[in-house]
């Protein structure tokens, strides 16, 4: 059986290290609009340049980036091409359904192809390279001829244990995008509140707690990462890396994390612009991916 792995562009496969870029994973691209221009993520959009532009934008409220799902025709074209190339099955990893309608829309389009090809669409319940890694894992198992039913279980095992934890040093984009409103927005700006965010098990980006000042926020994030997420797990049994939108907050994080004995074991990966524009260019954090040991049951 010939199987194709797909991933939405928010999986950051094109922003991750070079070794991940030519694995034969097909990319469904999401649209982004900024300052009168339309981009396709991962195709003609440089995330470093975008976040730099956002950081230097003076009138944030009047220059908010926004996104749009791929069209029916765009998604269908990926499925049609797979059929033309002789694939029997598609495994598609999609951006969290908690961040918009892309997962549901891909599933809707896939239903129109049920009589032509088997398509499994998986809600990653996360975004950025955690999402992309799920596609990499699926491709690795496809190449080993592991049955799809087992691949799905392996992906679900990771999803149940994966983590994204990060902080927004400045609230400008959160406020103007409507994620912080009213009194919370005013107080947050006034006393320099820095929210720490993570992905819930349902795949929504949720506040964990607020602190005053970025230094304390990073310290609390490091404590949580070390004591509640990594705990006593051996570093060979997980991947840990920085995720960020702009470099300034990330540099502060790297200086403070050494005091907590935190060591990443994978290269930094810049955040997907489609996901990151809502938080702005001052986000930094960690993504954590557990690697299942042989002594850990799949179910």
Comma- or semicolon-separated keywords:
Hypothetical Protein Tm841, Chain: A,domain 3, four-stranded parallel β-sheet, 299 residues, globular, 10 helices, Rossmann fold
Describe, in plain words, how this protein is organized in 3D.
With 299 residues, this protein is α/β, with parallel strands linked by helices. The chain has ten helices and 13 strands. It has helices at residues 47-56, 72-84, 102-111, 129-143, 148-159, 172-176, 182-190, 214-230, 247-257, 273-276, and strands at 3-8, 26-28, 31-34, 37-40, 66-68, 89-94, 118-123, 163-168, 193-199, 205-212, 238-244, 269-270, 283-290. The strands form three sheets. It has a six-stranded mixed beta sheet with strand order 10-9-8-13-11-12, with helices on both faces. The chain has a four-stranded parallel beta sheet with strand order 2-1-6-7, sandwiched between helices. A three-stranded antiparallel beta sheet has the order 4-3-5, with no helix packed on it. Helix 9 (247-257) links the parallel strand 11 and strand 12. Mean pLDDT is 91; it is low at 179-191.
Question: Short summary of the structure?
Answer:
The chain has two domains: 157 residues, Rossmann fold (3-Layer(aba) Sandwich); 128 residues, Hypothetical Protein Tm841, Chain: A,domain 3.
Structural topology:
Elements: E1 3-8, E2 26-28, E3 31-34, E4 37-40, H1 47-56, E5 66-68, H2 72-84, E6 89-94, H3 102-111, E7 118-123, H4 129-143, H5 148-159, E8 163-168, H6 172-176, H7 182-190, E9 193-199, E10 205-212, H8 214-230, E11 238-244, H9 247-257, E12 269-270, H10 273-276, E13 283-290
Parallel strand pairs: 1-2, 1-6, 6-7, 11-12
Antiparallel strand pairs: 3-4, 3-5, 8-9, 8-13, 9-10, 11-13
